[in-house]
Amino acid sequence: MSILNVKTNPIANQKPGTSGLRKKTRVFQEPGFLENFIQSIWTGIGGAQGKTFVLGGDGRFFNAEAIQTVLRMAAASGAARVIVGQNGLLSTPAASNLIRKRKADGGIILSASHNPGGPDGDFGVKYNIANGGPAPESVSSAIHAATEEIGAYRILESADVDLSEIGIAQIGRMEIEIVDPVADYAALMEEIFDFDAISALFQSGFRMRFDAMHAITGPYAKAILETRLGAGAGTVTNGTPLPDFGQGHPDPNPIWAKELVDVMMDPDGPDFGAASDGDGDRNMIMGRGIYVTPSDSLAALAANATLVPAYKDGLSGVARSMPTSLALDRVAEKLGIECHETPTGWKFFGNLLDAGRATLCGEESAGTGSNHVREKDGLWAVLFWLNILATRKISVAELMADHWQSYGRNYYSRHDYEGIDSGIAADLMQGLRAQLPDLAGRSVAGLTVSNADEFAYDDPIDGSRTEGQGIRIHFDGGARVVFRLSGTGTVGATLRVYLECFATEALDQNPQDALADIITAADELAQIEARTGRKRPTVIT
Ligand code: VG1
Ligand code: CO
């Protein structure tokens, strides 16, 4: 086996976004594209020599080929060992757990997460550091800088490694350990939650439906919910990972998981419903007749955390991404704990978790997690809910009604305008930015602006500053609208408009009705329709 030193040229736009590098699959398949990026990861982290990495992906189209390329390149650059999930599969939280548990130097996760897969879909690569979490900005910048200077990459000439059997393999001088993708993760869940209480809940006739959306969580959910906890065969639907996710869009929200929503809205539907995304780090929570918004779910988990064995002594603090609703802040205030506000993307929670300043973190996009790993974790959130329901012995609808009664309700919705022209999107954001100095005190659609700014984050642990993280406009009475552009899309730009208002009465409204004035104000401020020609959002969650 010889090591090839292949000459290459920098490829433009290999800049990691909110969560790794995401591109159309066909772009990743272009000669040298994946290779350039992987070599740049090695450069960005100071070399692969002697290191141990964890490697796996969500099973989407091109996963199998890409895994082999990464293995050959790790061997060629002197990595000592790569721990890889059987058949090249690992959910994002399971990869995070393995990196931590095995004290690896880092990990590569092949996934474009909630983006559709397939030859015409998207593919992605994420690099995680030794704490198990997404590479922070400093590491991502170093990787990006390397992509702009690369002149050659190193790859081993070798046959494909058979990843179908658990055990040890070798290419060149590098050892490859093929592991069961589920075992360590399932063991971790058992340490955190009261499995006996959850099993008893299922034995009492509690019915659940988990939609794995043909993505990575199928095998995890079957092993934990059906086999270990006795939820019964058939609880997990769409449970076999498929390279194109069954032509679906593996984003667990009421639009893309409509099949589940319909079942849950039936008066005879199951007691509890949940779904997860492409790489298993997001969650959608439903009860019979009720969809729980991710922001509310995060707040409810925080409020009930001490019912879970791992959090019985309380939370050291909590954190949420800036656009996530302020429902969490109300709980933190009552508990007397710190509540941090970070930019969008899990990489900003890592320092807080490492420093013990936050135990629980979450995002409005259906990501929730804790200090058990350094990623958001879909199935963990589902088990958290089950643990609470098993202990409190009430329904999801009752639990949320009780929560809103105690804390008030933050009505919340996100309106996405996908695939708009990048130039128009940039102008729209610039238009908002230009208004910022004079917005306070102005009346818009009958609401008065109390203050407005562009969010910048000063990390309290490492002192780094991250600017340009979304424009936020607060109104008198606690309402708010936030505008930002997505950093995970692969076509044009996606404008995300996050809408929120606070109520202590009339707690049963449709969020779109409760938010009607703020929706009007958002359009007036950003001139969405005038600038984009769009009369309505592409996706409302
Ligand atoms: C989106 C979400 C963000 C999440 C990110 C990665 O980013 O808004 O909250 O962390 O996806 O999630 P953006 O930049 O498109 O708004 V995952 O599960 O797709 O890795
Ligand atoms: Co994801």
UniProtKB/TrEMBL annotation:
GO terms classed as biological process: carbohydrate metabolic process
Keywords: Isomerase, Magnesium, Metal-binding, Phosphoprotein
Bias (Polar residues): 1-17
Catalytic activity: alpha-D-glucose 1-phosphate = alpha-D-glucose 6-phosphate
UniProt-listed Gene3D superfamilies: Alpha-D-Glucose-1,6-Bisphosphate, subunit A, domain 3, Alpha-D-phosphohexomutase, C-terminal domain
Domain of life: Bacteria
EC number: 5.4.2.2
Domain annotation Alpha-D-phosphohexomutase alpha/beta/alpha: ranges: 14-152, 184-286, 295-407
Molecular function GO terms recorded: magnesium ion binding; phosphoglucomutase activity
Family the UniProt entry places it in: Belongs to the phosphohexose mutase family.
Designated name of the protein: phosphoglucomutase (alpha-D-glucose-1,6-bisphosphate-dependent)
The species this protein was found in: Pelagimonas phthalicica
